Structure formats: structure tokens, C-alpha cells
UniProtKB/TrEMBL annotation:
Keywords noted in UniProt: Repeat
Protein name: Disease resistance R13L4/SHOC-2-like LRR domain-containing protein
Domain of life: Eukaryota
Species this chain originates from: Linum tenue
Domain Disease resistance R13L4/SHOC-2-like LRR: 3-185
Source lineage: Eukaryota, Viridiplantae, Streptophyta, Embryophyta, Tracheophyta
Residues spanning the signal sequence: none
Keyword Aminoacyl-tRNA synthetase among UniProt keywords: no
Length: 231
């Protein structure tokens, strides 16, 4: 079945679910024949590793990439996707920092990392992510610190952080993000929320952000918002 996909040479959007690790190689061979592909969404079968490393000649027109499942490493071909606009990594559980592979993609506008990284620190290096506008980070269990170095993702407009409970400090360098329009925090440490509300110790770092909201999950299953922005 996966081998037959290679005949769909004009396909622009491809979604695959329940992919077994042993079939990853065959899928990669088929994708190499789909040079018109613009959207690729691949989800591994439960408890299977998502192996996309056999892809040597990825579609050059790819704009949206979503990989869902455990990765041994970030596929080495991703930096060659110069037209990539959006990327989502879910349940990757990476040991290595995925940002190092993504940081030089020239047209990247949106990143979503969900249970994608097991490290304690995410560093957005100086001068990287020049066109990034949306960053969503979710369920990074061990994440303690986000560092935004000078001139990194300076066009960022939306920052959303969900359920990163080990993170108790405001992202270092967030005051450099002059174009940031919203900061949304879901089910985060109360110590972090307290820092940025009212006269909290880190409030001056986020005063330039028009909309700041912290959400707590109620027992009834809905999110209760607490608006922290002033005015």
C-alpha cells in the first residue's frame, strides 16, 4: 500500500496514521516521488518509533509538516525545507534539542512542540528564527527554562505555553519581543503566574504585551481564564 503511493506524483497533501516503524522506509521512498507535496502529516502507530530518516530527497515545496510519534532524532532532511511555514512535533520525546535543526529555516512562521523534548532548557539562539510569529510549547515535562537570545524570533506575535509544570520562571529575554501580542499560559506553576501579575517581580518584563492570560483547568473540565494584562 505505501509503495503504491509513489504513483501519486501530483499529490499536494498527504496524511498517514498508524505507521509502523518497519514501514517508515517504504513511506519515505514514496514521498520522494511526490515533489508537488505541500502538506505532510504522519502519525506513528501506538508504541512505535516514527522513522523518517530514509528520506533523502524531500519535496522542495513542502510548507506544512506534522510528525506525531516518538523520534530517535529530528530528521536530518528538515533543514533543506526552505519553503516550510509550519511544523508540529508531537510525542517525539527527543533527547536532543529540536531547535538546532529548525533555527535556520528562512520562512518558518509557526512551531508547535507537544511532548516533543525531554531537556530542561530551550534556547532560541541569537539571530535565529527571523520570521517566526507563533510558538506553542506543551507538555514538556522537564522544561525549566526558556532562553530568548538577542534578535532571536523578534517577529514573534503569539506565545502559548501549556502544562510545562517544571517551568517556574518567565522566559529569559521575553522583554526583547517587542512585537509580541499575546502570552497565554495553561495549567502552569502558580509561582510563574504570580511573578507576572500585579506587582509581581517579573511584571516589568511583560508589560509591553497587550494580552496576557493564565488558564486553570477546573474539575468540570473547562478552562478558567485569568486575564493578567492591564487595561
Amino acid at each position: 500500500m505505501l509503495v503504491a503511493l509513489k504513483n501519486l506524483t501530483n499529490l499536494k497533501k498527504l496524511g498517514i496514521v498508524e505507521l509502523r516503524e518497519d514501514d517508515g522506509r517504504h513511506l519515505c521512498y514514496s514521498i520522494e516521488e511526490m515533489q508537488s507535496l505541500q502538506t505532510l502529516d504522519v502519525a506513528a502507530a501506538r508504541d512505535e518509533v516514527l522513522d523518517m530518516n530514509a528520506l533523502r530527497d524531500p519535496p522542495k515545496l513542502l510548507q506544512r509538516l506534522y510528525l506525531k510519534g516518538k523520534l530517535q532524532k529530528v530528521p536530518v532532511w528538515i533543514p533543506s525545507l526552505h519553503d516550510l511555514v509550519r511544523i508540529g512535533l508531537r510525542w517525539s520525546k527527543l533527547e536532543e534539542n529540536p531547535l538546532e535543526v529548525l533555527e535556520d529555516l528562512p520562512n518558518l512562521i509557526e512551531i508547535q512542540l507537544v511532548d516533543a523534548y525531554k531537556g530542561k532548557q530551550l534556547v532560541f539562539s541569537s539571530g535565529k528564527f527571523q520570521n517566526l510569529k507563533v510558538l506553542e510549547v506543551e507538555d514538556l515535562e522537564f522544561l525549566e527554562q526558556v532562553v530568548i537570545e538577542s534578535r532571536s524570533m523578534w517577529r514573534l506575535q503569539s506565545l502559548v505555553i501549556r502544562r510545562c509544570k517544571a517551568m517556574e520562571q518567565v522566559p529569559e529575554g521575553i522583554d526583547r519581543l517587542s512585537k509580541l501580542k499575546e502570552l497565554q499560559l495553561y495549567d502552569m506553576a502558580e509561582s510563574l503566574v504570580n511573578q507576572i501579575q500585579g506587582d509581581g517581580t517579573s511584571r516589568p518584563l511583560v508589560d509591553h504585551i497587550p494580552f496576557i492570560c493564565a488558564y486553570s483547568l477546573e474539575s468540570a473540565g473547562y478552562w478558567r481564564p485569568r486575564v493578567l494584562s492591564q487595561g
